[in-house]
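Handout, page 2. Input:
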Amino acid sequence: MKRFPFLAVLALLLAGAPAFAASPLAVVAAENFYGDIARQIGGREASVTSILDNPDADPHLFEASPRAARALAAARFVIANGLGYDPWMRRLLAAAGGSGRKVISVARLLGRRRGENPHIWYDPKTMPALAKALAAAFERADPAHAALYRRRLLRFEESMAPIAARIAALKSRFAGLPATATEPVFGYMLKALGMRIRNRRFQLAVMNNTEPGALEVAHFENDLRRRRVRLLVYNRQVLEPMAKRMLALAKALHIPVVAVSETLPAGRDYQEWIASELDAVEKALATEGARIRNHAR
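Output:
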């Protein structure tokens, strides 16, 4: 079958693309957790499409599709993570052309710089900042519904308050606890919980699809065998051979493990997702605490 160049295919798809409609506001989010925030703020006044929305797929293997191109062609607002996490968005936007489209880089919104951990949706400050930015942008584009956007923003902020309280409560119990991970997906949340994160070089190697060095592997294994860490976090969507090896070792040594993901699970909103992962952390560490107490008797 003949293959057409990427940009040529996009040009065919985008030819004759319709102008922006007044309502609903067309929003395209690179990742579905950002799309969920846009949906919560935009309500019925926004039509939201998320490109990365499969919780069972490896986000790093994503390739731009005609569906994504068509969605971007009509988008009035675009939300991207930045920090090199979704570089394909830049190509899609360049091919889409046009003007009047507002692009929100979440990394830029937070003042993050390239080279930092790109998994910023696990930073507790990220979604409140994005929600405010979206509410303001939607108000400017659609002043007739400004009161609705402000009301939804307030509702969103209220729904995030229990999560902030939960993080503070867990931090008061587990601050200083040594934890590790197969890659730094959950790094911002572990930091918010006050935990000491070990094996950072190993995590970065796995994240960047390179083989961890022998020294990093040895350090990781020693941390597990000597119980220098009390928790291991792994990415359920991306399990490379070396990550699988460390996960298996942690389980064999009865070190608590917690699975996290890079994509919002189907049927949940962002708040439910984060609350469930905090539940998993608390449950795992409660089990570890009981084990330590029993051993001390």
